[in-house]
Write a structure and sequence with these properties.
single chain, mainly alpha, Arc Repressor Mutant, subunit A
Length: 120
């Protein structure tokens, strides 16, 4: 999977697309004007950038994703753990839970994930 970096506004615009896809570029122009106050040219510029990054495609005025929102955020999460915690998920969880304890529901959800995805 590609390493795609998005700025805050690009991320918000990507979310806008994911919420509506498949969506026409005309509908995106209207949605971006309402959400961000953008002009048509700004919407098309940011859309082009996201397409060049491999996140979306614009085929004859219809925009669809090449990478789903869950896939994208999974990639970003793995990259964050890799870059910040040398790839150690336990180190990430230790840092994450250092200032606040997990609820019993969160702990159970993590146990379930481990059971479902762990080896053996």
């Amino acid at each position: 999977m590609p390493d795609i970096q998005l700025g805050v506004i690009e991320g918000q615009f990507a979310d806008l697309i994911w919420e509506r896809e498949p969506v026409t570029s005309s509908e995106l122009v209207k949605a971006a004007e309402t959400a961000f106050g953008w002009k048509r040219t700004t919407t098309h510029t940011v859309l082009k950038r996201l397409c060049e990054k491999g996140l979306f495609k614009n085929t004859r005025g219809t925009v669809t994703s090449l990478i789903s929102r869950p896939q994208f955020y999974a990639i970003q999460s793995r990259q964050f753990v890799k870059n910040t915690f040398k790839g150690s998920l336990p180190a990430f969880l230790a840092a994450f839970t250092q200032s606040s304890k997990l609820t019993s529901e969160e702990a159970e959800a993590i146990r379930k994930l481990i059971d479902e995805t762990g080896e053996g």
